[in-house]
Amino acid sequence: MTTHPAVSATASVTAYWTFLDGPLGQLLLTADESGALTSLSVPGQKGGRSVEQGWRHDPGPFRAAEAQLAAYFAGELTEFRLELRSTGTDFRQRVWDALDSVPYGETTTYGQIAARIGAPRAAVRAVGGAIGANPLLVLRPCHRVIGADGSLTGYAGGLDRKRHLLGLEGVPLTP
Q1: What is the mean pLDDT of residues 93-113?
Q2: Coil, strand, or helix at residue 165?
Q3: Do the beta carbons of residue 57 and residue 74 sit within 8 Å?
C-alpha cells in the first residue's frame, strides 16, 4: 500500500467518485486529481462521505481499486497495493499509519495501537477517535482493531460489517 503525506484538513482534494457494489453494500470511493484514493465509505457509515457538488463521476481512476477489492472479497488478496491520500491531523496520520501495519487475518487492540505510536495509555480514547475517523474503510484495516478483552467494539461501518471482514480474513470470532 502506498500512502502520501497528510493534506491539510481544509484542502479540497477530492475530484472523482464512483460506486462499487460489494458484500458490504454499495461502496462510495473518492479520489483526488492524481488518482490517489481519498475515501471508501459504506452505506449508513458513521461519518461516511457522500457525493458533493463539483465532484466528477468517473469510474476510470478506480479500476485498480475495483479489481483489488473484488479479489479481497473473494479471499484472494491479503494486501492492497493502492495509492492512498488521507486528510487528518498529525496524530490521526500516526494512528492510520499504525493501522496499515496490522497484518491480514490478525487483530490488535486500541491500547496496542497507542503503544505503537508512542502515545500514553491515557490516549486510548483519542486513538479510538482517530480510528473511527478513518476515511478509508477496508483499505486501511480499522476493522482489525478490537477491545482489550477480545470483544468486537466500535466500527464506523457497523459491527456486522466488522464481523464479516474479520470472518473473511479467517479471524476466529467468539459469539
Answers
A1: 96
A2: helix
A3: no
Strand partners, 146: 109
- Residues with a catalytic annotation lie at 142
In this structure, the strands spanning 83-84 and 56-57 are unpaired
Which letter does DSSP use for residue 142 in this model?
G
Q: Which domains does the chain have, with CATH numbers?
A: 2-84 (3.30.160.70), 90-168 (1.10.10.10)
Tens-digit pLDDT profile for residues 120-173:
988 999 999 999 999 999 999 999 999 999 899 889 999 999 999 999 999 988
Q: pTM higher than 0.90, yes or no?
A: no
**Cβ distance 84 to 62 under 8 Å?**
no
* SS3 label, residue 16: strand
Q: Cell 490517489, residue?
A: 36
